[in-house]
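Known limitations

Structure tokens in this collection are predictions and should be treated as such. Users comparing against experimental data should check residue numbering before alignment. To illustrate the layout, the record for Pentatricopeptide repeat-containing protein is reproduced below. The input appears on top and the generated tokens appear beneath it.
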Amino acid sequence: MVCHETRIPPDAGTYNILIRAAAASGSLGHARHLFDEMLERSIAPTVVTFGTLVTALCDAGRLEDAFQVKEVMFKRYNVPPNAYVYTSLMKGLCDKGEVDAAVRLKEEMAGNAELVLDSAVYATLLRAFFRVGRKGELVGLLEEMKGRGIAADRVVYNAMIAGFCEDERDPSAAFAVLDDMQKNACEADVVTYDTLVVGLCKLGRWRDAAELVEDMPRRGCPPHMVTYRLLFYGMCAAGEFLEADQVLNEMVFKGFAPSKDCVRKFVQGIEREGDAALLESVLCRLAKVNALELSGWEKAVGGLLNDHTKLRLEKQLDSLRIA
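Generated tokens:
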């Protein structure tokens, strides 16, 4: 039997994947080249194609180009922009502090019967109002959302919690939002708690952050690796290396590894304090989760541990490598 090679020509879906990958890598030039290649092959771009390009341009801060794509996609290709395109443009405007322009874009959406405003649109505006110091308008925005039949969901609540955590010196407002979230049967997720952990640590309230992390399983949301990393980083930033060591213990037990940047700061902090016993213990535990850079290990060992301890530690590390 003779087998003939079958070639499947690329379609819009194929190019959408390639354009998204190029945009994600920061190569807007390559993304544009792929778009031009689509047209050369007479492959019609879809709303996903344009949405990907708009988002990439917004992320790169090229708002003028992004708005040009929005205009061209309908006028030249008869592809009307969808809610994703509008939300990307609104986020881009908000990131530049152009909140009034984002609000006007939201009203443009509301005037288009083909588009549906959703919680993501309002969450984007809520975060922006916090950033530009317009908290007084939050209630009106939430009332408008409610009047349009859009319920406050996890996306909206998380946006408000993040806003209060960044804006306030007292996180009580953020926890009040969390309480309201639970009263309305809206389940908090790891993003909710991670945001609170970061907020508490920034205020130097790492003990409260640790208690919150400990309480997360009871609240129905067990902490994950990022949660532990955030808490570990917060304790290291506060110079609480013994407390950070306890978090490291739990991380290693669960098979989680702290980020290498944080490990570097942690090891350097222990070196400065001159605690050789703690350093020996920490290096071994970091090696167990493959979070130990060779250069950092050599520097730490060479600078603080005595010869007998170095030899013992080297044997322990060798056994871990063999295992």
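For this record: The chain has a mean pLDDT of 86. The chain has 18 helices and no strands. Please report discrepancies through the issue tracker.
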